Batch of 2 targets.
Target 1
Amino acid sequence: MARARPTHGLLQSELTRQIGSHLREHRPECDVVSNPGIVPQLMSAHNCRVPDLAVTCSPLEPGQLALSGAVLIIEILSPSNEGETWTNVWAYTSIASVQEILVLHSTKLAAELLRRTSDGAWPARTTTVTTGTLRLESIDFQMPLADLCARTPLAR
């Protein structure tokens, strides 16, 4: 795996900080985890993915190798891993507990969001956010997209 660029790292750090603070105050039973092992249902015996972040509301067990019960998975899209990232997103849709998947761009001010519908299905297309507020319903979190990217070159 290629080394992450500084903008990627800043976005990951800021999301961890913002979501972690929100969870401690509003959803203390949940945790945000950086670079967790995630096992999709598709070919689960041979398939482990590592997203940038995930939120679980399931208790962590000693010695646990992969995160279980993820409700939100976040990938930060870089030019060097775009194809792999979208392949991972497809695999994440097979996990029953996942309610939302956020793909945050690292080269432009944009986020793409997949959210399960009320009947449990996934939409055919992502919802793109380029201005205004980024809302993550799975954890009742929101923040202006511009604030998320304020300390990165994307804000300039």
Target 2
Amino acid sequence: MAVWITIWEMAFRLFAGEESYGFKPPSEVLRTLFEGLLSGHYLKGLGASLMRVAYGYVAALVIGTTLGLLIAYTRFFEWLIGPLLLGIQSLPSICWLPVAVLWFGLNEKAILFVVLMGSVGSIAMATADGLRQVPLAYQRVALTFGASWLQRLLWVSIPSALPMFVSGLKQAWSFAWRSLLAGELIWHTVGVGGLLQDARDLTDYAGVFAVMILIVCVSLLMDRVIFSYLEHRIRTRWGVR
């Protein structure tokens, strides 16, 4: 990180200079970022955004896991829902913005809907793929010991599918976070999207870059502290590298 900040500062000094209007040095951007954090202004917006993405992500987790189970164990649902989920997964989340506005209007529900649609496909497909790749030998051993279908699901299939499932959760989080930002930019509300719009409206270039850095830092923190750690622990526990 220090290397990139140094390159940024050198590029500003060599090519932009103090009279630059649209390009600010990292010293000014970082000062704006720290002032926003210390005043609580950025923390308030960040807290609102994290609350929204948590609601949408939990809803996507419940719906996506259920759909993944149906696809993995039911041929009818695999035929009916599988291609649809693949299409939803490949569709950019910003494409759901017009639909969300038409259905819900410019409100919180529209943003949550965009977050849900942006992440549910990844969770569903990761669940289905993980359950399909459970070794057949595991199932046969469980049957030998007289395990019921529910017991095989809870004690054999789901633990075996966890490495792929967690990878899907990690991908879904990144999609949910990006979807949230796209949703907040269409409706001015308290959140990081609102902070970004305020800085743009005030032509505060340092503020724009500061909010962008805040967004990236939150994304990296969630990835490193939660998902990468969880993924590493599960892969190590299961002997998957």
